[in-house]
């Protein structure tokens, strides 16, 4: 039986769902000769680590308790009674992950999974890669920092997987990677890459207020922790940057033209997420409803589109024909069209659920399993 040690950073919607998938897939993985050993779990304040990372793991009862307590808003630092593991504060946690990577990198190997929405994990992840260990990301921020950081993280390309950063569980990164690896050159990528904005745009068409459907998208687990990351277009810009870098473009986030759906004075420096959702956002309702109405008079719909073409990346709202592949999208579905030498006239098209904890965590789990050959 191959035993894969795993540390999971982040036990919010995606991280908890990943823990549940791991436990629910025990029998399936066992048939495949695999065991995923969760040796550590972190939140923003602390980390739980198995007493002996070589021989022990956080057992399934402990993982279930973590999921339950985190869903109630409890911090991991309060779970001192959980048994058979140690609790570290945030500063120690960072060192713990680096130490575990150092120790297991020389023996069995280790996979560190980033299910946070934080930029702070980048430095640790670079060290994890340096230690010979693997990284799996749902978090886009480490890959959308400087070009230098990106190159460092992807310097051992077999050790990193990040399928869920673009299109959640959809095989977009895998497909683009295969196209590029075959020497086929991608010259255009166009799509709708936000589950939140896809859902919001298709729901406002039915007459619901924008502010109401944004709140629903948050409840459904589609949005980023602060939905302004979605509504500002920055989350789509990050996905676009990941794709552009994957096809070989050496660009940064500030090279991308991004349209925000709310005014700058409602940004995170001016109001809390609660105030934004609770009041600020409704000020945008009228404007969006009017844009939807005008588009509809022409047989069009409003969609938030990502375009990578001619050395330019732009993301923003567009009036688009109802009959087009993007115009037909409903709910949180994403669609992406990839044009290349081999897919010149008729693009390679990938479509399906593009957000949600279940599909995102499933994508992360599939990435983990994909790394199995690197473990002893
Ligand atoms: N939801 C979706 O549909 C998709 C999400 N993703 C990505 O998945 C990631 C997670 O999303 P989601 O689960 O919804 O987010 P949540 O806000 O629900 O959870 C984030 C978790 O990360 C923890 N955390 C924050 N900072 C740190 C840190 N520095 N070190 C360790 N842990 C930290 C938080 O801790 P605490 O509990 O203490 O606050 C929390 O447990 C995001 O990057 C998102 O973009 C990607 C594709 C789709
Ligand atoms: N907030 C994102 C989640 C996936 O990356 C989205 O809505 O697409």
UniProtKB/TrEMBL annotation:
UniProt KW keywords: Amino-acid biosynthesis, Methionine biosynthesis, NADP, Oxidoreductase, Threonine biosynthesis
Domain of life: Eukaryota
InterPro entries for this protein: Asp/hSer_DH_NAD-bd, Bifunc_Aspkin/hSer_DH, HDH_cat, HDH_CS, HDH_short, NAD(P)-bd_dom_sf
Record has Oxidoreductase as a keyword: yes
Cofactor: a metal cation
One GO term (biological process): methionine biosynthetic process
UniProt-annotated catalytic positions: 239 (proton donor)
Catalytic activity field: L-homoserine + NADP(+) = L-aspartate 4-semialdehyde + NADPH + H(+)
Molecular function GO labels: homoserine dehydrogenase activity; NADP binding
Pfam families, A to Z: Homoserine_dh (PF00742), NAD_binding_3 (PF03447)
Protein family membership: Belongs to the homoserine dehydrogenase family.
Designated name of the protein: Homoserine dehydrogenase
Organism listed in the record: Spirodela intermedia
